[in-house]
């Protein structure tokens, strides 16, 4: 039955995409009335209309033309929020119908993470550009497949965490740009150790903890629970598994690490110059995790081949830790340092290379976005390496080229986790 369903899904996509091929190879303005020229607003579909999806309706240069959610109450909230702008917006409960719409330029994937890889990859195959929420994918294997799909089909991909290029970076009191400049200058020396904890300005949100005593409850009539689960294993419905509290379960996310990890770690990857690689090991200090419900952890340590380390201090044990520590100096929250006259010394060094930070412009000009499928996959891999080590409660060695764990079949089994039929990526 699973194979039959999988074949049906492939046939659905093949037939739908074949019928729309003509639309995807010409500018929409030539298609007639109702289609905007590429120089005007881009159209987008939002898949997943919970609070995250609804929070991005007004992105400059875009217009919502389609909405999709497996919960009809969420869809109604989304339409109501759009108000007058919602007139004519199409609504769906199955994303596969949305991604074949010829009038859609961009698909915004705002579902729980266990759906990110499948929907984004299918959208790429359908010729859509993609805006995806973090974490990019729920597993390392899904990330590898998504990178392949985006690049094979020539799509523009944006991951929705922005701290590598704009906004104040949590407790650091600055954007990442001067931190990148400092690291590149060599004033701190090399290798570097970065400590991410409440003392350096980063809260790990350990309130995202799953429950181990959930009672089976009736599924609300407005929710297609089977579709909400999608590729995840079947579990009896309980409201704590879905919507606002899904992050507490391994099937859908990874607690505070899954929620905040890519926000915190992607900028570190950027300023350390690790966008094209991954750590060679991950060590964990944590209680034994429940197989279903996410728990807390004390410490996760990533080490790169050149000796650089990222320390995730979960319990805040190191109260005096610098955010970045090198053999020549330290950097603390608020851009404080033990290097005398740091800002004066730093002024003599060049600024980091400019980044493509306007997603609409990137789509129109077909230029890779600053945080794209490649570097986004590498920072998602940091999160997913940590999740694998926590679930197994052991330290692991990793090959950053093959993107596989070394001599550990149990860990590698979690790179491509089995998906419930008919779903594949």
Automatic annotation (TrEMBL):
SUPFAM superfamilies registered for this protein in UniProt: Glyceraldehyde-3-phosphate dehydrogenase-like, C-terminal domain (SSF55347), NAD(P)-binding Rossmann-fold domains (SSF51735)
InterPro entries: Gfo/Idh/MocA-like_OxRdtase_N, Gfo/Idh/MocA_oxidrdct_glycsds, Gfo/Idh/MocA_OxRdtase_bact_C, NAD(P)-bd_dom_sf
Entry keyword annotation includes Phosphoprotein: no
Pfam families: GFO_IDH_MocA, GFO_IDH_MocA_C2
Coiled-coil annotated spans: none
Highest rank taxon of the organism: Bacteria
Single GO MF descriptor: nucleotide binding
Keyword set includes Oxidoreductase: yes
UniProt keyword list: Oxidoreductase
Domain Gfo/Idh/MocA-like oxidoreductase N-terminal: 45-159
Domain Gfo/Idh/MocA-like oxidoreductase bacterial type C-terminal positions: 172-425
Name of the protein described by the UniProt record: Gfo/Idh/MocA family oxidoreductase
């Amino acid at each position: 039955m699973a194979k039959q369903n999988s074949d049906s899904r492939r046939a659905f996509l093949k037939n739908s995409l074949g019928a729309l091929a003509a639309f995807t190879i010409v500018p929409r303005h030539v298609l007639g009335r109702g289609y905007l020229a590429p120089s005007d607003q881009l159209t987008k579909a939002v898949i997943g209309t919970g609070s995250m999806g609804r929070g991005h309706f007004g992105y400059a240069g875009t217009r919502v033309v389609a909405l999709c959610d497996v919960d009809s109450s969420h869809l109604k909230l989304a339409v109501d929020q759009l108000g007058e702008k919602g007139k004519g917006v199409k609504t769906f409960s199955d994303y596969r119908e949305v991604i074949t719409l010829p009038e859609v330029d961009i698909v915004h994937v705002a579902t729980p993470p266990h759906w990110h890889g499948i929907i984004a990859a299918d959208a790429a195959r359908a010729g859509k550009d993609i805006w995806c929420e973090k974490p990019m994918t729920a597993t390392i294997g899904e990330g590898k497949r998504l990178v392949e799909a985006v690049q094979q089909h020539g799509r523009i991909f944006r991951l929705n965490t922005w701290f590598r290029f704009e906004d104040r970076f949590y407790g650091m009191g600055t954007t990442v740009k001067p931190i990148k400049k400092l690291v590149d200058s060599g004033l701190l020396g090399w290798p570097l150790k970065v400590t991410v904890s409440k003392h350096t300005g980063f809260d790990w949100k350990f309130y995202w903890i799953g429950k181990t005593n959930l009672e089976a409850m009736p599924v609300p009539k407005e929710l297609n629970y089977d579709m909400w689960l999608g590729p995840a294993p079947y579990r009896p419905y309980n409201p704590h598994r879905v919507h606002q509290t899904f992050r507490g379960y391994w099937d859908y996310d990874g607690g505070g690490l899954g929620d905040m990890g890519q926000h915190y770690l992607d900028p570190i990857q950027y300023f350390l110059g690790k966008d094209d690689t991954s750590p060679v090991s991950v060590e964990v200090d944590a209680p034994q995790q429940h197989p279903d419900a996410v728990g807390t952890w004390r410490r996760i340590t990533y080490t790169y081949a050149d000796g650089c380390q990222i320390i995730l201090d979960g319990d805040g044990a190191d109260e005096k830790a610098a955010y970045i520590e090198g053999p020549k100096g330290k950097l603390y929250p608020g851009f404080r340092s033990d290097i005398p006259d740091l800002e004066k010394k730093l002024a003599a060094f060049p600024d980091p290379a400019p980044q493509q930070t306007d997603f609409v412009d990137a789509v129109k000009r077909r230029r890779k976005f600053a945080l794209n499928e490649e570097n986004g996959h590498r920072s998602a891999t940091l999160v997913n390496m940590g999740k694998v080590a926590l679930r197994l409660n052991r330290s692991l060695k990793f090959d950053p080229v093959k993107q596989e764990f070394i001599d550990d079949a149990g860990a590698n089994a979690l790179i491509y986790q089995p998906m419930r039929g008919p779903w594949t990526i």
